[in-house]
Amino acid sequence: MQWFQRAERLLSLALDGVQLRQQITAHNIANVNTPGYKRASIPFEERLRAVMESRGSLPLRRTQPAHLPGRKEPSLDGIFAPQIDHSTRMRNDGNNVDIDAEMAMAARDSIAYQAMVQQISAGYRSLRTAISEGRR
Description:
Radius of gyration: 21 Å
Helix content: 55-70%
Largest sheet: 2 strands, antiparallel
Number of domains: 1
Number of strands: 4
Order of helices and strands: HEHEEEH
Number of helices: 3
Strand order of the largest sheet: 1-4
Structural class: mainly alpha
Oligomer: single chain
């Protein structure tokens, strides 16, 4: 059951990230002709991976010698913070939105979102099957 809860939590965070990235991509597409606009992105996968790799590496403070050493959950603060790309320039007016790249990202994120929803749904179906088969 713990593996399912952890997988559901990760997929839920990933769904939130993909949904937010879809909004940011839509905003970038809407501003493709705005002079001086700089595209935004959310590289939450790398941030989420870093949090998962550091999982359990932050020790809790022990106030009494009798306390058991434990682990503190890593912080998810800033995982969905937008990142503005100031390094590139697509046009003379300073706008750096590449409409083809943004449309490809929108399609990729749509497919990723659907796949994650299917994974969560399959997990619940498996759980429901295990519960209902246990009653027979």
